[in-house]
Amino acid sequence: MSELVTFGETMLRLTPPRGHRLSRVDRLDVHVGGAESNVAVGAANLGVDAAWASLLPATDLGERIAYALRGEGVEPLVTWTEMGRVGTYYFERGGMPRGRDVIYDREGAPIRDATPADAPLDRVRDAEVFFTTGITPALSEKVAETTGTLLETARDAGVRTAFDVNYREKLWSPAAARTTLTNLLPSVDVLFVAERDAREVLALDGDAERMARDLTAEYGFETVVVTLGEEGALALHDGSVTRQETFPADTVDPLGSGDAFASGFLAERMDGAPVEDALAYGAATAALKRTVEGDMARVSPDEVRALVEDGGKTDIER
Which of 68, 113, 86 is nearest to 298 (CA)? Predict the structure, then answer.
């Protein structure tokens, strides 16, 4: 039995060295990343027994992903397929004024054809928390139906369900996302949503608190966490609002910060902490992740606790 089970696609990330352009590069750094596996890794590094479920091709590249997750303490619950390929994406860092860019190459990944029969339903039923994101149902109508079945299966078994809207405009339009997500959200207990996604995708108005209350009224969530970028995060739980500022961080790699936040929040809540402490834990995990290369939150509980206690005011001495 795993305390946390996540479900979604994990890809290989190919990144030019800092300061190099993708169109001119002759070397790429390889990382493993996917929102749901990132959350599993972050939680595992914080002491949670975590597993990640998905489909992978039975190739060396598929094994590369499973190997990376095992190395971070996550159990891969993989259905291996003879067909398909590992999805990839390219991340080109660019400072101001150029900005950064992400290019996806994920057509043909076997998870697009995932059915409930491909998922470890018994492990989902036995988990304490089941987690997935809006990226997964964006991949295809079939996997959207499978995502819904997994959420319902978990909910019916008394498993707490957690979901991050995690909207990606390169995968679908706000209108298409809204149609699919509004069918999934009734099966969700804990919702993570960026303020911009609440406005643009879920078509909500007002400030973050107003949107959290409207979402709770509409779907009956146990907890709603609205992330506010540099302004931190807000959580609504049992009618009470808690706010959390961000912790300052020197950013080495920004990708996966939101996933790190979710992993820290869930890990602390699963340990029995109140929402206020879980928000701080999530914010600290996200800040520490930004100092680490790659998508995964390779952090320790001691580092997170030290940052929370320090309040981010000074560098933490070792």
Answer: 68
Residue-number span of the structural domain to which 60 is assigned: 4-310
What is the enclosing helix (H) or strand (E) of 40?
A: helix 35-45
In a domain, 317, yes or no: no
Phi, psi of 26 (to 5 degrees): -120, 10
User: What's the Cα-to-Cα distance from 291 to each of 141, 247, 273, 286, 296, rounded to whole Å?
Assistant: 36, 12, 25, 9, 11
**Is 315 among the domain residues?**
no
Q: What is the pLDDT of residues 245-270, one digit of tens each?
A: 999 999 899 999 999 999 999 999 99
Q: Which long-range contacts (CB under 8 A, 24 or more apart) does 22-26 make?
A: 22/90, 22/92, 22/101, 22/103
Cβ neighbours, 10 Å, residue 103: 12
pTM: 0.95
If one compares 212 and 17, the residue with the highest pLDDT of the two is 212
| Closest CA relative to residue 197, chosen from 163, 165, 236, 173 | 165
The full length of the chain comes to 318
Is residue 316 assigned to a domain?
A: no
Count each helix (H run) and each strand (E run) in the chain, helices first.
Answer: 10, 13
- Is 253 in the active site? no
pLDDT tens digits for range 140-184: 999 999 999 999 999 999 999 999 999 999 999 999 999 999 999
Instruction: Look at residue 11 and tell me if it is in a domain.
Output: yes
Residue in this structure with the two tokens 């946390």, named with its chain if needed: 4
Cα–Cα distance between 241 and 223 in angstroms, integer?
10
CA distance 193 to 172: 17
Amino acid at the residue 69: L
* CATH code of 126's domain: 3.40.1190.20
Total domain count for the chain?
1
pLDDT in tens, 66-75: 999 999 999 9
pLDDT at 317 exceeding the cut of 60 = no
Catalytic residue among 118, 197, 253, 259: 259
